[in-house]
Structures
1.
Amino acid sequence: MVWYVLGMKMRYTIKDFNRQFPDDAACLKYLFDQRFPNGGTCKCGTTDCFYPVTGRKTFACSWCGFQVSPTAGTIFHKSPTSLRTWFHAMFLMTASRNGVSAMELMRQVGVTYKCAWRINHQIRQLMRGEAILLAGIIEADETYVGGKRPGVRGRGAAGKTPVAGLLERGGDVNVTAVPDCKAATLMPNITAKVQPGSTVFTDEFRSYNGLTQAGFHHAAVDHGRKQYVRGIVHTNGMESFWAQFKRSVHGTFHHVSRKHMQKYLNEFSYRSNHRQGEPMFVQLASTAGEQRPPAV
């Protein structure tokens, strides 16, 4: 497959998708090649012996008849929905910067709302990447996600979900739904995900005051005094991520419950962390054959 190259960014269009995955058989063969890159070895000892079984999502050994299912244990496990519908949904979710709601997915791929909702969450499960230890210059910031409600404003706003974010400059972002924004919550989140000795930039929030004692180089800007940049010290990158996430929640999903917040955070951090290099759909599809626990 040849991608279109625009400057340094490669593009994967709907034409590329239709050419690579014209039907269910192409999707199943793609998953089989992921699970068994060398053609697979049957329990009878024969290698490169599997052929697709007509009418089933399985491949059978041409010598003993033993069958394997490329979808077993994946996000497609026991799903009656067409594999091409799943792959089309993956394409839509990676092509959109602001996310795709279950209602929009229902209209685009032609399934019921219940099915679209499950597909959405299963694909978000696929977007849950491996934890990477951040290093270098880190921006740490926390925010609250939720609709406008009467009552307390700012930190501790009633009915909103607190989330903590870490951004490695020039690298990945790691965001987590947390029970609160106390030091006892935010500090362990940083020490578990940031390499000791790294430089951590924050705002003046007191929960970050223990960073120096924890073995990090710490500097802060004072947002309360309208100080947002002090040389290289700022948290603007992390705040830009929050702005994009909140606009998407408000404009696309309208509401995200505390129960499912982490799945949406995984989705948007995946987009941020995989925006360079190969087209995002190609990167996501390359992991579709991995074993994943159910998302819902």
2.
Amino acid sequence: MRLSDRALNVSPSATLAISRKASQLKAQGVDVVGFGAGEPDFDTPKHIKDAAAQALAAGDTKYAPKTLAKVQGAVAEDVTRRIGVEYKPSQVLVSCGAKHSLYNAFQAITNPGDEVIILSPYWVTYPEQVCMAGGKPVFVETRGEDDFAPDIAKVRAALTPSTRAIVINSPSNPCGNVYAREVLDALADIAVENDLIVISDEIYDQLLYDGLTHESALTARPEMKDRTIYVNGASKTYAMTGWRIGWTLAPKDVTDAMASIQDHATSNPASFAVAGAYTALTGPQECVEEMRRAFEERRTYMYDRLAAMSCCRISRPRGAFYAMPDFAPVMGRDFGGQVLSDSMDLAGYLLDKAAVALVPGTPFGAPTYARLSFATSMETITKGLDRIEEALC
């Protein structure tokens, strides 16, 4: 059967082989420590689950226009309250997870040949979705020694007449960096001066540490509201990854375009999941702070341990639940006949020799780095870091 060029050009997961091998080892009884989790290890708070159960019991199992209208209003109120930018419910599109929201966004704004600037390290889905929309991802590298802050001169140098948009992700997956106000201001200047759309992925905005408060790309300049597609969702803040609820806020014409695309793809998210998201947004918020505090404690321990190791260098993560150390100090070294040339080699070696599964940085555009999630227990973190130190340092 002949496949489409679009399907053939989507890159397979570069970490699939490592994930598969980790699963095989676990099935064989090996005590594998996993640092790959991209989701909170906490259960969804009870009051949110109860709301969905009540919606099911009440027969809320049909298409969801009434429930969606409620959650659109709740999202608009939440963004207005927390970020200070006012939106109408009609500018909110609720989708099947923030990944789906991003897909809608790229499909709505990208024409064949359009270029989209993506700061590296990046979440692996951004460039794939740009390509699926017919666009071209253009990468601008950032460095751990600069806390992954972009060199604004390099961003400007990457602009061409084909540049259509720039992706901003703060707090960041994979490296946990948080952009300072001056960085967001500079990126906003570029967007305004060059008539660019900004896709601002702020899914980790309530997972901040060291007393930081969230700075949104939306508030960098008054004009940003008219050129920004804001992306967020329930997954990370409320431990609702499996519920698949995300949303975008954008100028009305962009929201309408994304809604038309979604209408012919998924229609709407599950009605009872939307009911849970409404309760998440409007109900008690103490659960968010409890999870955030636990993540911060783990972050501090993981950072302190990695910063003390000779085998890597690390920038202090200040948001999300990831650390991204640079293992350049051990690249090129021979470990019992295995020379580590990049993070794929590193991940394979640590899985074989130390039963530690981490995510190599190569798929994120950072070949000497690796991503470690601290969305797991302190016991697991301690055990895994002990093994990494013994195997590499």
3.
Amino acid sequence: MKFAVPLTVLGTAVVAHFVAAQPGRGLVHEGPYWVQTANGTFSAASASRLRIIASGNVVLQGDPGDRVVYTMNRRMKAGSEEEARTLLRGFEVKTAVRGEWVYLTVTSPASKTVSADVMVTVPRTMREAWVETNGGSVQAYDFEGRLQAQTSGGQVQVDRIGGGATIRTGGGNIVVGRVHGPVKCYSGGGSMKVDSAGGDSWFETAGGEVWVREVLGPIHVSTGAGNVKIGRSTAAVFARTAGGLIEVDSATGIVSAENSGGAIQVNAANGVRCESSSGAIRLRNVDGALRAATAAGNIMAELLAGHPIQDSLLSTNAGDITVLIPSNIAMTVMAWNESAGAGRIVSDFPEIRIRGQALIATPVVAEGAINGGGPVLRLVVKSGSIYLRRGK
């Protein structure tokens, strides 16, 4: 049975449709469950935004047409067909059009033994879609507008989204394919895997790995515990983890990384700010201002040939510092080793003068200008050695 009721909400005419049941097939007995499929369709020609509210899994699919089509699979754990049909009366589908918004609400009986999974096909040219479910997963594909997806604990997977995406889950994993706009992902404890995003993007999880292949804009990553792997950013990268490896392959802007319990590796960046409580730091093909510090671990920095650095500081409390310096970079080196005789400063550059190495109680100090001098590179070691090597 299906009927329309005119409503008024804040002075706006609303047409709401209440669908008691539009079964596509009868009840089917599958093991301990009874299953029924229901479907419906309505026009969305006058609307540009869609909101779906459900309690089970939701799949959203963009389509060239101008109608919203849904299919709902209702599953009930019941001892008999009569009991299952009684539970069916607790399922309800409501649709409403309010201005530019279309609403699709699916309610289920308040029982852990029932569920309602919904697949919705919508016009792909809609400006926005908002999907919310209390406990199921969310999937969304082939949608040109902006997407918002929220679940209290399920997994979220999206791909081929045109206008950007905001995703929230209470603890599930998030998988993002291609999104042409900015992406914001938040999870209470799941991992995140992102193929590409087209703007300023944020990825935050209370505990899980974060893998991002490419973002055309700045990247912000934070995880309570897990590895962070970033392929490419056309701007700056900000990454933080409480334990795991942070690795950035390429960033056009500065890389700022903070690790409370692991190593940091940057393979190409225009400036770095890296700090680790207990892990090594490796910097390759870097220029600009370099700031790197670790409480326990080695630091290796390979400067980018033909690209001058700015004033920089590398320091470790327990470990070695190795710097590969191309022959065509002009810079001034000031190195300080406080290992009190146990550590050394070794240099391939005769213009860098080393003092105090023979004095056990005196820190070893080295200073000199390479290619006439320039920005100052300061190196500080509390316990370990410093190596200044000639790079290519």
4.
Amino acid sequence: MSYRSILEYIHSLAKIYFKASKKDKGKMLDHATQVTGLHRKSLMRLLKNQKEFLNGKKRCGARVKYSSDLLLPHIEYLWVEIGKLSVKRMKAAYIDWLPPYNENGVTNNIKFLLQKMSSTTLGRFLKKIRENQEQKSRGLCSTHPAQYMQNKVPINTLDSTVTREGYIQADTVAHCGTKLEGNFISSLTLTDIHSTWTANRALYTKKGPIVKKALNHMIDNLPFDILAINTDSGSEFLNIPVYNNFQKKKITFTRSRPYKKNDNCYVEQKNYTHTRELFGYQRFDDHDLVRLMNDIYENYWNPLLNFFIPTFKIKEKIRIGGRIKKKYGPPITPYQRLMDSNNISEKKKIELAEQKKKLNPFELKKELDRKLQHFFNVVIELEKLKNRGPL
């Protein structure tokens, strides 16, 4: 007798088994033992759970711990607020985002279930939420190699040997839209290789004195001392004002090879996550927008990413034949990496901890959205004035 036949027999037997007397139940079990060859205890267990039989199949797997109807709205809300991170980064971000989360009628029990949920289970929920990502347009490259300075600034590609904070990579992103003509705004990005702490600043044109002023402002506001900085071979960095500035500050200044983005990979990946995701690819060529962009970068966007968004960091590379296998450590926020460092003073750590206490990730996100809405409204108004022309 096949197992499917046994299940069908048990299903039919259960309809009369629970209505029978104790004596008749014993007789039914004796007969069922002879028919199926199963032990009485096995038959009793199958009969007791007969409600779980549907279409001749038993419901397999563990009982449902996480109700989709209960948790899916909260997971979707958090995923959008945190920035649509990958599953493991989102799970790591819960430690900072769940305590202040009070929206959508959330309860302590829901928070407990969300925290207890594994990243694999969370991934199954996110799979239901994700939509097909729209294909993004690509920005133009505004980097022009500075031939006359390349001999003064040495090439450095040995970023894998960095073991402490203070080794910075720098790059710029052009907000030029579909054309490079005329003056437009660019975003300058600094990323610490070891901690992944990142700072952004908008600047109008990329002339040497302007870049130098922006770099000094950013360096003075970093929570650690800069030991070395590596840039691309663009003329915005390889010029006399910037070069002399680093010499004066005794900061080691090196460059990557022209057209080799992997040499500056730590900051290159931030061009999308820290700039393009925020302001997109359209053209900003009005000087008044610089102040608004810097307010967003310094007061909302950078604190949100540095204090509350975990990042992966490569641990080791293993060559297997013709390919390289990369192993990553657990996702940690840049703030936590600085707090775990032995090279950051206790005074600075206390200052960082106090700064984080004053921040609420949900309030930061709401205010960021409000500022962005205002920024793009200003952009629209400026475009209307420009298209209207002189009166």
